[in-house]
Specification:
128 residues, alpha+beta, 23% strand
């Protein structure tokens, strides 16, 4: 098996994932998974596609991720890994699709409008 390259996005985070056969090592921006994502919730999000398809220790993954916050980055990685696993085995699609792991979340931050404090919040009106 050659290296499979896929891209995942979430908000402003972009993750590039390189999947190859191996022992289950996950490296994110040249750091170990447990160092880059210290919380168990984020680690679970990253490992979720492997857990659902029973491929926990079959692949080595190198990930480059930038932009956004840590949650957006974890979810971008999850989308990219799900796409890569679908390319490895077509049967994985039937497992990952009902869980919503192959859907790109379209929600983005709404822009700030001029004459307002934020996107929707207005300046306080005062009578004097």
């Amino acid at each position: 098996m050659e290296v499979i390259h896929k891209i995942g996005r979430r908000k402003t985070a972009v993750a590039r994932v390189y999947v190859s056969e191996g022992k289950g090592n996950i490296t994110i921006n040249k750091k170990d998974l447990n160092v880059y994502f210290p919380t168990a919730t984020l680690q679970y999000k990253v490992k979720q596609p492997f857990a659902l398809t029973s491929n926990d220790d079959n692949f080595d993954v190198k990930i480059n991720v930038y932009g956004g916050g840590i949650t957006g980055q974890a979810e971008a990685i999850r989308l990219a890994l799900s796409r890569a696993l679908c390319e490895v085995d077509a049967e994985n699609r039937g497992i990952l699709k009902p869980e919503g792991l192959l859907t790109r979340d379209p929600r983005m931050v709404e822009r700030k409008k001029f004459g307002q404090k934020k996107a929707r919040k207005k300046f306080q009106f005062s009578k004097r």
